[in-house]
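Q: I'm writing a short explainer about Cupin domain-containing protein for a general audience and would like to include a description of its predicted shape. Could you first generate the structure from this sequence?
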Amino acid sequence: MDYYLSNVSQVKKDLVPIKGSKGAYIQWLVTKDHGAHYAVRKFTLEPYGIIPMHYHKYQETVVITKGKCKVCVADKTYELKEGDYIFIDANVKHAFVNYEGELEFFCIIDYPDDMSIHTLDEKCE
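A: Of course. Here's the predicted structure. Afterward I'll give you a sentence or two in plain language.
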């Protein structure tokens, strides 16, 4: 495929498939099905939504486009707001906790051979 054109509003919104997630939705905008070597995803978290502590073999860059949240990465905690972004390397544990108001962010990932996600029994505090 030479190119692909669409609109975010036309992409199916699914629940985030990470065990323990709450009020978290994902849209797969660009994928290997389009011929890309990476994926672009949009996440939406409802007020107080959570993507719990987890890790995976793919790298990701997260760009906050609306709202603010707490991000736990490795053993540190940060507050990210609209315009902030973070790169998270493969196999680094991380979690997202939304505050009041809707949170939106784009997440770009690579495609390693193993796309499995491993949840951890740790809180993001």
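A: For your explainer, you could say: The chain has one domain: 11-113.
Q: Perfect, that's easy to follow.
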